[in-house]
Amino acid sequence: MKTCPPLFVLYRFSMGGLKIKKMDLRDMKRENNELPAVILAAGKGTRLGKLSDNKPKPMTDVNGRMIIANLIESLIRNGIKKIIVATGYLNEVLEKTVNKYQGKADIICVYNEFYGTTNNIYSLWLTEKYLQNGFYLFEADVFFEDAVMQKLLYSKAENLMVVGKHNDPMNGTVVDLDDKNKVLRMYLKRHQKEDFDFSDKYKTVNFYRIGQKFSQEFFLPKMAEHIENEDCNSYYELIIKEALDKDFEFFAVTTDHLEWWEIDTVEDLEYCEKLFS
Q: Which of 38, 98, 166, 232 could form a disulfide with 118 if both were Cys (CB 3.0 to 4.6 A apart)?
């Protein structure tokens, strides 16, 4: 189905090799902090009902603290210097909020005017020029404790996703891991039939690190392919699944005892507020 806006631009992608060097943990974090962070925050949050009538979903309060404030402040506290926010619904309201952090980090807002008819793959595509050398990727509807961010930044693998052991209230993409936390398979929601077995699965937190080599050699060209084919109503996770199916290497960092929750519905919000009370 052709769902893209009428105008879009395709780019050529240069192939760049990785320079590998030995480093201690402080050096590794410093190098990882040079990557930009992209926050996907364009959606309306329809399932939150009246709570999203006058403000975007990422501005929802959890016990008096905005979801996106919790995310941006964690990024800044952990040394991320460039933050790109893909906005859409009520963009001016959201941009006024995130621009308050200007000076503490380089805040760049990218507006998806077609947020109502496209999905997050298109919002991410609009930030493409910032992604060439690798990037962090976050969805703006996850509330979490700061140690989750620290686990992501300190982890060694180039391509990473944060995951938590699946439990019943959770909903969305899940993965299989091996005993070394290598991601073996990804199951999008549409692949989860009625009898799907979640007992050994891990739910994606929707926090990722995409390395330079993978970004240049697969992720960005594949995203361009989706846009070229006017497939703008997909999710970026489809690209990661396609990569895993082609044996690209991804590792997971598990949240273990650390708290986090994805907020899509009023019930999610109530559960999250109890979790963090």
A: 232
